[in-house]
User: Fold these one by one.
Assistant:
Number 1:
Amino acid sequence: MAIIAESQWKRTEPTSLTREAFLDLLFGRTPLVREEQFLKPAQSEALYNHFVPLISPYLHVTGPPVSKVGVAQFEFQAQSAEDFKNRTGDEKQRYFQECEKYRTMHDGLAEIAGEDVWAKMSRTIAELVPEYDVGVASEGPGKTYFSGIVRKINSGVPIHCDWAPYDCATEDWILSKITHQLAVNLYLSPATRGGSTTVFDVQWWPGALEYRDPDTYGYFEALVKNRATATFQPGMGDLCFFNSRNMHIVRPLEPGEDTQRIAMSSFIGLLPSEVTGGKPKLIFWS
Ligand SMILES: O=C(O)CCC(=O)C(=O)O
Ligand SMILES: [Fe+2]
């Protein structure tokens, strides 16, 4: 059996968003960073009410249903063994066309919530790590990625990780050149029954593919058995970060929970200076 690297986690509890915590997360030394009440309840409520009626199903998902406002690069990925056999070569073109449709999606945020909460999130990070450039991922004119999708995940997601150097290796996406990857979620929902997220102390490495469920983007449970975990129950207005190279799972809402589990979400990848030709850059995409 393949060998898993020794744990680097110093703790399993979430820490608040400081420079040290952010860098520990990026480099795998801590599992969770959580800034409680990043949004005031009235802001979350206004955004929730604005986005819920606009939600539509993912264009492609090989697992429990997920729906959204915006674009997920994941919708254009090879998710299952079958998908890998059926790449058409026009995935990137279709992806960037879809991004154009949602280019103005955040324009009304300031009016709805009193401030552009998504810009506030990226500004907060940029201030913590001045040694990095920070911005939405781009491959040049007409090829700017989309960041800040709003997702509804009521039915949970299987054990999986989000690791662009593997997930995006099917084409020449710039994302496959990152060296570290985080997920950030700004939870807008008051849902409290079910819907917790668990991060496992197992990062993607080639041997993890032995545990891949061929029918979905998920991995079998044996991969994470007996490994340390860090679990959180998202609270309305909380801004939570985890290292998305780590395996993670979202549990479904329980029967009787009648609010939707909604979050505004992005990945954050570190592009090294060998790729940027200048400062390392934190790139955002959903
Ligand atoms: O909704 C969540 O808590 C996490 C969803 C997820 O898999 C991700 O953001 O990568
Ligand atoms: Fe994920």
Number 2:
Amino acid sequence: MFAILVAVTVVLLFGFIWNKTRSRLTHIPGPSGIPIAGNAFELTSTFIMMQKMHEWMEKFGDIFKINLFGEEIVVVSGTLTGEMLVTKGSDFAGRPRIPALESLEGNEVHLVLRDYDPKLRFIRKLVHKGLRQYGEGMDKIEAISVTEIAKCLDKIEKLDGADFDPFPYIHHAISQVMNTMVTGEAVPDGHPMLNKAIDWDRLDGELSQDITLFLPGMDKLAFLLSGKLKDYAGILEFFIEHWRSYEATYDKENMRGLYDVIYKAYLESETDEEGIKISYNNVKYLMFELYGAGITTTHKSIYAFVHMMVTHPDLQKRIQAQIDDVIGSQRTPTTADKHKLPLLEATIHETLRYISHLPFALPHETKKETSLGGYALPNKTQVWPLLSGNHHNPKYFKDPLSFNPDRFLENDGSLSPASSRRMLTPFGAGTRNCIGEVFARTRLFLFTSSLLQRFTLLQPTEGKLNVLDPKSEDYLKKIPCVCPNFKIRAISR
Ligand code: HEM
């Protein structure tokens, strides 16, 4: 017994000294953790992790470090977020390796999780060009979105006021806009692409619950996730096969969508000033990453918006009154109406703040030796911007856990200036900001304005909804966070 006790003490002592001597960040405060595992066992679920992150932010301030089996991660909030993402954006523009996920995409990451290198810069330029041509060009996005939104609303009308879960309706509409953006056309109703997109979303959420993904050495232990990774790879291949079928009819004089734009860059060996080209693998997988990013976050924002409308009926009435005034009941909302509906715009801002469904954006990594808030940081330090820490902080947003779009309005009802919303960064900011922000905001506006123009959203006949608690275990199950499934009624106006 004594021998076992001594052995355990020696291992713990060794672990403690090993962790301490290996630390490159001894000067940064943080929770002490246990030998070898560091803080890993304190972060056993997304919910607990988020609770701890906010607790540590309050205790240690705007910069602290955690340790996951020797991998040190710096967590940043407050005004240091701006220093990290914008002022010193290129110093922090890297992404850490997530080896377990890399194995899915042919041992190379292509866009979202790619490190900041010349190829990433070229890919971001290409995607921006494609989005501008096929998405952010307002006429085009409007035409695509309005058609799909109208189809979705027609389906909801057919329910004739019965209880229903809006989840698949919103998901399919958002996926169809993405399908049209990528290939130039929506898929027929009932096409397997639509349900595969839901399967992908579910699996992506399940994988994100696994904190082990971020641990060093997971490329060797990926078998622990093998079932999920196999299903994920199957869906990925399915999407790619679907898009590949469009290559046979590719015509460079008639660009149909984003896939054609990226495929053309590959076929014609387009280069940038640094002589970078993209490979065929880049074409396939970056399209997949864009497709996924374009659906998962936007869908969850609209789903939460619907929940908020049902639980805040007075707010819903005020938005409807503004829509009736500006647009009326006959004309379809357009993006030109956006600035005339400040209450709706403020409600979209407030939804994104309140739900903070990407609570620490995506992991970043330093590209060189740098500093933050006066603390020196070595090259290749993993850094997470804690966006929810800002969004739910009373220092920046009064009474942050109450849902109150009026916080973004002036006394005369107009939208407050962008400069007053500096701490609201649901899309990140700076060098690695979200590529799809304009596209996402446009779809959010068109969907929510059309929905409230046509329907009043009510509590279901059974199972009343309570106001969503963005700190609850039910909400913080996975990342991106999503409201637990719910039912409502939609009554034609
Ligand atoms: C409500 C909707 C959305 C939200 C809240 C959102 C939020 C974010 C955030 C926080 C990041 C990480 C920024 C960082 O690393 O600091 C990100 C990255 C990204 N988003 Fe979005 N996003 C949304 C919609 C979209 C859409 C519609 C698309 C595509 C059409 C998209 C494509 C991307 C891509 C490609 C990246 C990675 C950029 C890079 O790594 O360089 N997102 N997004």
